[in-house]
Amino acid sequence: MRDVIGAPAGWIARAIRTKKLSAVEVVRAHLEHIHTVNPRLNAVVFATAESAIKEARTADRHNTRGSALGPLHGVPFTVKDIFNTAGLPTTAGLRILRSRIPDHDATVVARMRRAGAILIGKTNCPPIHGENSWSPLHSGTRNPYDINRSPGVSSSGEAAIIAAGGSPLGLGSDSGGSIRLPAHYCGVAALKPTAGLVPVTGGYGLVGGMTDPRSQVGPMARYAADLAIALRVLAGPDGIDSGVVPVPLPKRVPKLGGLRVAWYADDGMAKPMPAITATVKAAARALASAGCVVTEERPPWLTEAYQLTMGFWGRKHMNRDRMDRRWDAFRSSVLKFMSRFDLVLSPVAPDIAPLYKAKVVGDHQFSYTMPYSLSGNPCVVVRAGTSPENLPIGVQIVAAGWHDDVAIRAAQAVERKLGGWRPASVVR
């Protein structure tokens, strides 16, 4: 069963559907792998072992000729420990919530289950607005490529266990970069979807509606193609989150030929390390070789996005009415820029994974991701390079609103050309 560890979620689903593998075999292999790697990572804080095996047996019994199976039938998945899970603790890394056990699933968890996926664990996360992987309740998570380094911010446990092969697919959340930075630091693929596409109902600290359109729930995986599978499961109104719009996902896979791509390697605020600059340039060449029309051009509104985010976070005094007016003007500026381009390519962060528990200096760790939280654009992160320290380097691919599929398709092109996910050192 070694081959299933590190396999794409889509491949696993097909193997189970065609009975080349059983759901029990797949789930057991992943639980055993978590048992092997988690002592070094501390990425999974609650495992569902017995109940997951029981669900897998049920999945195998239902896998009969002519039966209607979900797209993720029998596929294991994990979720960040902010999402309600019926009968399992949901702590968000907070001591005060250590005994909180919801009686219902978050919308996205329920949708994954209805698609046939089997929950095998919940992953570590720092409290809301945590700037590293440290949780006061569960301690910290380590990076699977170097356990002396951090896997990032609040979706760090999810990124770490996916990179280490313990889970083929997971769910995270992102307000300013909390899906994207861990994906970059851990070398996995991830999607922050268009604002208003996926409900946040049942995610602790995610208010939903129009109160905070920056905060979104999205899938994380090792392969970009699996993001597309998960998005079809997750997207659409749930009748609760008032910010979700009933926009159907396109049925056809978009073509990259002729798409206009703007790229920049330096946002003018946080100078990237040379290896990151080189990786962004390589990704630009990969998109050009896929038929895109690639232009180096930095958007003019990046500094304004940083100032607005500081105001939203309360780190810069800004009257709420004035901030809303500036935010609206900013979003209009993004729309104007995106009318000239189909995609924007940039770094995810100026540096590679920081040392474990290193003190974060300033807020420029998020300066490459903040603008697209404020604008609501979909963003995909995919591994495109490796640093001299042998650590992953991801790139951020941004599409126009409601064109998540275009960003995913571009990420697949980069992945094919530059290699994508590679096994982590903790499991080699």
Feature tags:
428 residues; alpha/beta; Amidase signature (AS) enzymes; 2 domains; eleven-stranded mixed β-sheet; two-stranded antiparallel ribbon; 12 helices; 13 strands; globular
How would you summarize the topology of this molecule?
Layout: H1 9-17, H2 23-41, E1 44-47, H3 49-62, E2 76-80, H4 107-114, E3 118-123, E4 134-135, E5 139-140, H5 156-163, E6 169-174, H6 180-186, E7 189-192, E8 216-221, H7 224-234, E9 260-263, H8 274-289, E10 293-296, H9 302-312, H10 320-338, E11 343-347, H11 370-375, E12 379-386, E13 392-399, H12 404-418
Parallel strand pairs: 2-3, 2-6, 9-10, 9-11
Antiparallel strand pairs: 1-3, 4-5, 6-8, 7-8, 7-12, 11-13, 12-13
Helix pairs in contact: 2-3, 5-6, 7-12, 8-12, 9-10
Describe the structure.
The chain is an alpha/beta fold and 428 residues long. Helices cover 33% and strands 15% of the residues. The strands form 2 sheets. It has an 11-stranded mixed β-sheet, sandwiched between helices. Strands 4-5 form a two-stranded antiparallel ribbon. Strand 2, helix 4 and strand 3 form a beta-alpha-beta unit. Helix 7 packs antiparallel against helix 12. The protein is globular, with a radius of gyration of 20 Å.
